[in-house]
Amino acid sequence: MATKANKKTKKREKKPVQKNGLSPKQEAFCLAYAASGNATDAYKKAGYKYASENAAAANGARLIRNDKVRARLEEIAAEAASKKIMDIKEIQERLSDIGRQETTEEYITMEGIRMEKHVAAKDALKAMELLGKMQGAFLERSQVELSGAVPIVIKDDI
């Protein structure tokens, strides 16, 4: 039988914490919420115990108000947004593939058969042109010729 002295010296087990300060369940909640946008469902999917649907809804809403959880949700949203936007390198790689006619396009014939064909020559030329412009290969030059006297007007503001 444990004595009072033994009970006082027992330490509580610490829950594992992730580098962002969230528990594994909080991290799971953030990922589930980012995927569904529903706090109640995210609370359930994260593995939290709940007595009723209302309790799950209330606790999910409470978790969203947590500063660390909110910061993680913003971080996840920023990561998702940045993955959707092509960077210059990716654009140039795609244009290079099209210019070399290494990519194919899928189309469906009148009979309903799916076929693939290489990119058309006009599309490859356009891709090469765009790639050249991006890399500064084409400089637009214009020549200006002046004939006769050019009037110069100097105004004295003093």
Give me a quick take on this structure.
The chain has 158 residues and is mainly alpha-helical.
What does this structure look like?
The protein is mostly helical and 158 residues long. The protein folds into 2 domains: 69 residues, Arc Repressor Mutant, subunit A (Orthogonal Bundle); 47 residues, no CATH class. Helix content is 53%, strand content 6%. The chain contains 7 helices and 2 strands; from the N terminus they run H-H-H-H-H-H-E-E-H. A two-stranded antiparallel ribbon has the order 1-2. Helix 2 packs across helix 3. The model has no long low-confidence stretch (mean pLDDT 84).
For the biggest sheet, the summary is: 2 strands, antiparallel
> What is the CATH level 1 assignment of the largest domain?
Mainly Alpha
Q: Helix- and strand-based class?
A: mainly alpha
CATH topology of the largest domain: Arc Repressor Mutant, subunit A
Let me know the number of strands: 2
* Portion in helices: 40-55%
Strand ordering within the main sheet: 1-2
How widely separated are the two ends?
A: 102 Å
SSE arrangement, N to C: HHHHHHEEH
Overall mean confidence score, pLDDT: 84
Q: What proportion strand?
A: 5-15%
CATH superfamily of the largest domain: Terminase, small subunit, N-terminal DNA-binding domain, HTH motif
Q: Number of domains in the coordinates?
A: 2
The general outline is: flat
CATH architecture of the largest domain: Orthogonal Bundle
Low-confidence stretches: none
Radius of gyration, taken over Cα atoms and rounded to an integer in Å: 32 Å
